[in-house]
Write a structure and sequence with these properties.
Layout (H helix, E strand, L loop, with lengths): L15 H13 L8 E4 L7 E5 L9 E7 L14 H9 L3 E5 L28 E2 L38 H21 L4 E11 L1 H9 L21 E5 L5 H6 L6 H5 L6 H8 L11 E6 L7 H13 L5 E5 L14 H13 L1
Parallel strand pairs: 3-4, 3-6, 6-7, 7-8, 8-9
Antiparallel strand pairs: 1-2, 1-5, 2-4
Length: about 350
């Protein structure tokens, strides 16, 4: 048997861990893209929305994509790392809103004075001029390790910052999404945004928040986040979302971040029904899941569990499985996976 000639044999595939690390480095290696306008929806420094104007002239108002970034609901990961995807969607002709929200390990406090205004909008009844740099760059590790959860329960993740703030993370997403139509018109102009074509999209923990925000009308009426009617959305596109809390807890997704988001194990029983997208079905809203089959951050079993729960509730979400694709290519404009993401957004938007 003749040995293979290394000069002519195809290179072997890199180990899974190396491939995942390379995907992450590529996705997070892009420079931050500043927005065209930034608007605040509250007094905390992270109650802000970055707006990107559509770059393609379509001779009509553009659909609005509201992006929710991931990062396990931890403060070390902000909207800066998803700004290249926001800019990519804007280049394709979308108006884009990148929503920030309070996360675990983040201290309370007022907005910081701005040192990088990005065409701030005129203050209105629901919006004030940005008082923070518009979309500060992604800075991993900026939160102090072992920060306590906001309710004093501490982190259940063994030294990592607490994931999420209960109830502040949910307060912020609900407030921002409800205010989004008026803020988008104020920031970009009525001629730039088609409010009949609004989509929610999110990655990882942000995918969870997008699914949750679209399901608030399913919450019990006594919930502070309950909507009396479905939100006016064309749909939701959730990218590798933490969409099913039961499976995510069992698989210890993001080092047990789900339990942290809920305030710790003691609150699991009473809070999971208020926060788990798989428990808030059916929604009656078009839902698409995009997930890589080699994702080792949020395993594809989590999305599969959500799809089964939706089917049991009488809905059939579109699920796009991307072969040999990990967690981060879904938000990397340089990766082929983003073409699949934009195709799914196009299907709902147009």
């Amino acid at each position: 048997m003749t040995a293979a000639d290394p000069r002519t044999s195809p290179p072997s595939a890199p180990p899974a861990a190396d491939r995942a690390a390379a995907e992450e480095a590529s996705a997070l290696g892009h420079p931050w893209v500043p927005p065209d306008a930034v608007v605040t929806y509250g007094g905390h420094r992270d109650q802000v929305i970055d707006f990107y104007r559509p770059r393609r002239d379509t001779a009509r108002p553009a659909p609005l994509v509201a992006l929710l970034h991931g990062g396990a609901w931890r403060a070390a990961h902000d909207r800066g790392h998803i700004s290249p995807l926001a800019a990519h969607l804007a280049a394709l002709g979308y108006a884009v809103a990148s929503l920030e929200y309070r996360r675990g390990g983040l201290p309370d406090g007022p907005q910081h004075p701005a040192h990088h205004p990005a065409n701030p909008v005129t203050p209105g009844p629901q919006a004030r001029t940005a008082a923070q740099p518009a979309g500060e760059p992604f800075t991993p590790g900026s939160a102090a390790a072992g920060s306590a959860a906001p309710d004093g329960s501490g982190s259940s993740t063994g030294g990592l910052p607490a994931a999420g703030r209960w109830p502040e993370t949910f307060d912020d997403v609900a407030t921002a999404v409800d205010a989004l139509p008026a803020l988008a018109v104020q920031a970009l102009g009525a001629d730039a945004v088609d409010l009949r074509r609004v989509l929610l999209a999110g990655h990882s923990a942000g995918g969870h928040l997008a699914l949750w925000a679209a399901a608030r009308h399913v919450l019990l009426p006594d919930s502070p986040w309950h909507r009396s009617s479905p939100p006016p959305l064309r749909g939701v596109v959730a990218l590798a979302p933490i969409a099913d809390f039961t499976s995510a807890i069992r698989l210890r997704v993001c080092s047990g971040a789900v339990l942290d988001l809920l305030g710790g194990p003691d609150h699991l029983t009473d809070r999971i029904a208020h926060a788990d997208p798989a428990a808030l079905l059916p929604t009656g809203i078009a839902t698409t899941i995009v997930h890589g089959t080699t994702d080792n951050v949020v395993p594809p079993q989590v999305s599969a569990a959500f799809a089964r729960a939706a089917a049991a509730a009488g809905e059939e979400p579109t699920v796009a499985w991307l072969p040999a694709t990990g967690h981060f290519p879904l938000i990397d404009p340089a990766a082929p996976a983003v073409a699949a993401v934009t195709d799914e957004i196009d299907q709902l938007a147009w």
